[in-house]
Request: fold
Amino acid sequence: MDAATLRERVSRKLIEDIEDVQYPSVTMMDRVEAVLSPDALGDYAEALLEKIEGTRFPSISMLNRLDGLIAQLEQAEARSDGARRAA
Reply:
């Protein structure tokens, strides 16, 4: 199995674990962010958004993480758009 496949499997499993618990630990979120593939970035952001939407008082830490993920997604989209325009 190659590194990309392993990275994808690990990130999917960790995202599923985060979705399954009411309050994911900082360690769990740090771990998924360390192995997160660009393709899974949106899935992880959506998992955090669902946690935020599911509570009246979301944690500041989770809101900050989501802000960072949105910024990463915007940068990836800008790079993709730039690459398409250059082609």
Remarks:
- DSSP finds four helices and no strands in the chain.
- Residues 3-86 form one domain.
- The two ends are 32 Å apart (CA to CA).
